[in-house]
């Protein structure tokens, strides 16, 4: 098993030309409009917001395979940055999310008008 972080680095010269990776993902609520593949940070432990240049450090990227902008209040997957989690077994840990995290998506928690 390869325990090295692959994504976010250039492939090694002479190394394997293909591989498979686990990527930790988390379901969150869009704080405002988010573009697919956009770097995001987490606010209030359940909302994703776009990273402003040189302002926040992102924890991952919005689902890059979405076809359209994720509107404010919409659910989305965030792919967490490589090397940022511990205990990958489809049940992982990250400092931004408490044990037993659940997005609890309902109209009362989205701050939508």
Tell the overall outline.
globular
Mean pLDDT: 79
CATH topology: Beta-clip
What is the structural class? mainly beta
User: What is the CATH architecture term?
Assistant: Beta Barrel
Tell me the strand order in the biggest sheet: 1-3-2-4-5
Q: How helix-rich are the residues, as a percent range?
A: under 10%
Total number of helices: 0
Largest sheet: 5 strands, mixed, barrel
Radius of gyration: 15 Å
H/E topology pattern: EEEEE
Distance between the termini: 48 Å
Provide the low-confidence segments as ranges.
105-113
Supply the number of structural domains: 1
Number of strands: 5
Description:
Helix content is 0%, strand content 21%. It has one domain: Beta-clip. Strand 2 and strand 3 (47-50) form a beta hairpin. It has no helices and five strands. Residues 105-113 have low confidence and may be disordered. Strands 1-3-2-4-5 form a five-stranded mixed barrel. It is mainly β and 113 residues long. The protein starts with 24 loop residues before the first strand and ends in a 33-residue tail after the last strand.
List its traits:
Beta-clip; 21% strand; five-stranded mixed beta barrel; disordered C terminus
Chart the SSEs and their pairings.
Blueprint: E1 25-30, E2 39-43, E3 47-50, E4 60-62, E5 75-80
Parallel strand pairs: 1-3
Antiparallel strand pairs: 1-5, 2-3, 2-4, 4-5
Condensed summary:
This protein is mainly β.
